[in-house]
Amino acid sequence: MTIINDFVIDDNAFFIADSHFKANDTQLLEYFANLPQGKQIILMGDIFHLLIGEIHASCINNMQLIQQIAKLTYTNQVIIIEGNHDFGLSNVWKRYCDYNVKNLKIYPHRMQPLIIKGKKNTLYILAHGDLWINTNYGIYRNIINNPCILFIFRLLDKLSYGIIYKAIAMRINQKLIAEFSFFRTDSPYFMSKRIAKYMSHIIHKLINMGFATEHTQFCIIEGHYHLGGYISEKNITYNALQSCYFHKEYLTFKQDNSIIEVVYGTR
Q1: Nearest Cα to Cα of residue 219 among 202, 242, 243
Q2: Lowest mean pLDDT across 40-54, 108-122, 176-190
Q3: DSSP annotation string for 27-86
């Protein structure tokens, strides 16, 4: 958990989650190229299908979208929340692109969820979404984000001339990317369970710290599950973002009701 003071969520900010970019995905590149100038763009993780920032071969394989995001920083503020398919990104744009440093912020898994103050006694809680899944997954997540492990990845990539990465990428690319509809009968139950996780791990802590009260309005926003829907329970609204891999629509945020909405399709 990290309390964020270096940016606020703009009215009508755009959220993009789980686009799972693969090389030469021209439709997704066009989607990013058509994002309106001046909008705050919040990338909620798994924007790339496999981008390990410390591996040169991985960066080269994803260079089309890396450069597109760099270009966006000259017209938009871009917030990147790392996912489980794209991590170790802190130095990617420094190494490979010219970009506007002031307009790019990157938040790794260890900092998530992000806690951001909003208007009218509201707190926003942002994360990719793969938090508190189970103990084994938590251990795996900590291992792959460890700086020593990332250094080993980089060394192996260099010694193998990218062959190891290409073998891993090929295997991951063969796996099915699943869409989970908000209209599944178990979706409300699942989202209610996610609210319970945030209450026990985050919201109660914020109240005990004095950073929030029982009357604070909490707005949780996360991707990862490819759902595309929301529920509200008392003073908590939970937004499960849809996957941009399946739906090339722009999702904007209305602060008045703390709900993510589809505003218009691909231009």
Answers
A1: 202
A2: 176-190
A3: HHHHHHHTSPTT--EEE-S-SBSSEETT-HHHHHHTHHHHHHHHHHTTTS-EEEE--SSE
